[in-house]
Backbone:
DNA sequence: GAAGAAGCTGAGAACGCTATCATGCTCCGC
DNA sequence: GCGGAGCATGATAGCGTTCTCAGCTTCTTC
């Protein structure tokens, strides 16, 4: 069915080896052979078979990406950044959603492995064990890192970012600041909790009961935020540790008819398209989402290119963007 | 480096053929051979080489997806739906962003082809020619369809959807209804424009100058919406044909201090997370985004499975969700 | 003019798998 | 006891590339 080098060779009246040489651009070939081979290649519509090539070259020119859910704008931005860096180098991205489930993640990584990806970028699911990261192709962890997994990792300064959010609220005079977060099994969430704790403890204002743990969906965020806001002594400000929690907190505030920022100040982690569209616009700790993917891609390409040495952990800076949801403007 | 069937065979003390049979689960093998092969396979950590398998079976168990930009929530939802349907069948999705550029799209499809994907789902870029869709693996077009490209296609009832939006505005008494749309080179946009025209013409209210053509970004949407709202005889209602245009129109309205729905009624095409978060919540024509991807996946799997017959075009229904942005509530 | 270098070519061996085939072997029924 | 069915096994031929190697021709150099 499909046309092979052999077919092209036959049509051009040369040996398979010669045709392969001109098509593969290596070794010698006379000008005459060259033009004839190219002519019959285009005439027959020859497309090199990447599978066969991958088998002998032991490189599939393919990068695996394992995220929780591509519908999460954070992961979508990461995917975009990754492919932007990697495609110009001839790589294509194999995408899989693991839905924050370690078992699905394990299976996805296995599937990518048997497809012989040249490398993979993984956002580890909560509870993922380090074994999964032991051997296999070059791998970089993104956004989170599994304890004991000796791979490159690209993350943001979570603790500092959370600290900047809390400090902002403290500076505005808040003394009861709650936090709505994803599971602390996720290293980035754990770090954000740590940053929150440290900032409050420094002022002697830490109250553990004001930390509400949700999950990885808006619904979870709503429930967790409601738990905090339903209390008689509800906090006057809330720091939400990811975009689902932010969304949930907004829903909860509306449900309880709390006006922002008058009744409740809000700072979210991770900026989104719509944060400037709501009223008031949201103050957030913005992460360089595209850069996360891009840097992960660069790390990976370097490793694929043979870079050696101990695992490298890269941390990118976050930035507090003050808008209206804390009453600072 | 990596362990092959041959290594497993050697370790188990059987021939390569026998080992291949038990690992590949075909043909005969004694129970003894079976256990020994499996034992040494797990001991050595054997992972089947999908590349080699693909070469002989002529199936990569891989589906290509070409979208404009995975950061667009619409495409992200499509990707999610597709992979949800396709992964349980053992397929993995190769993702590429073509940025609505026919040339990049062409190259992406070529790359997917040389990777020998078993099928592909493509959201054609504006201006894409039918040639690209002529031969190659099974292909389904999504959201849009290229004139003369004889492939399966999965789309929504664009004209009817646009009509329902306009009818809603008409029923509320609006007589000057503008439209902000993406390029009519995109078939779905063209159909939405057609639906808009038909609904207005039926009432004798069609004014071509109220159609403002933007592009594929928020910025374009803002500019196009502003062009409409800056006029002294500005429309009292606007129908936006995709989520970027909706976002842009919201920005333009804010810029001009127009109150929604008092000064301006708004209906968008495509529902999004944040449409219920803005004030007032947005009335939209919602599309079954996940289903688009799922149905495309099912179509594709059917074709890969050998389904024959003329190209099939599937149309999914849209649904008007009335919220507050038209003053209907 | 001989020796060597350089240019060009085809044969053929991998890569790691699937799958066919021929060859034994055991067991059954008649 | 014997033919045939059924089971088990190893050899071996691809899949479509990449790439080495040997052989041949042509050009260079002293």
Residues:
């Amino acid at each position: 069915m499909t046309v092979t080098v052999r077919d092209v060779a036959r049509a051009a009246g040369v040996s398979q080896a010669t045709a392969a040489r001109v098509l593969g651009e290596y070794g010698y070939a006379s000008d005459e052979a060259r033009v004839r081979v190219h002519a019959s290649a285009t005439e027959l519509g020859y497309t090199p078979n990447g599978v066969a090539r991958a088998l002998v070259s032991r490189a599939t020119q393919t990068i695996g990406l394992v995220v929780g859910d591509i519908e999460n704008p954070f992961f979508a931005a990461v995917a975009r950044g990754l492919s932007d860096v990697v495609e110009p180098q001839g790589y294509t991205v194999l995408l899989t959603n693991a839905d924050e489930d370690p078992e699905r993640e394990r299976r996805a990584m296995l599937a990518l492995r048997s497809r012989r990806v040249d490398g993979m970028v993984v956002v580890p699911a909560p509870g993922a064990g380090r074994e999964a990261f032991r051997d296999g192709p070059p791998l970089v962890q993104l956004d989170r890192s599994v304890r004991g997994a000796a791979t490159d990792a690209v993350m943001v300064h979570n603790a500092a970012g959370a600290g900047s959010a809390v400090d902002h609220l403290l500076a505005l005079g808040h003394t009861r600041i709650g936090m709505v977060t994803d599971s602390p099994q996720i290293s980035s969430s754990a770090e954000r909790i740590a940053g929150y704790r440290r900032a409050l403890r420094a002022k002697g204002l830490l109250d553990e009961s004001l930390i509400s743990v949700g999950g990885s969906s808006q619904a979870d965020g709503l429930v967790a935020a409601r738990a905090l806001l339903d209390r008689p002594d509800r906090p006057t400000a809330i720091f939400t540790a990811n975009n689902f929690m932010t969304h949930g907190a907004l829903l909860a505030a509306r449900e309880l008819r709390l006006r922002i920022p008058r009744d409740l100040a809000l700072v979210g982690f991770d900026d989104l398209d719509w944060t400037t569209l709501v009223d008031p616009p949201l103050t957030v700790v913005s992460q360089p989402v595209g850069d996360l993917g891009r840097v992960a891609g660069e790390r990976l390409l370097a490793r694929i290119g043979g870079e050696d040495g101990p695992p490298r952990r890269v941390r990118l800076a976050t930035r507090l963007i003050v808008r209206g949801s804390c009453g600072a403007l």
Notes: Residues 14-18, 21, 27-30, 33, 52, 54-58 of chain B lie near DNA strand D (CB under 10 Å from a C1').
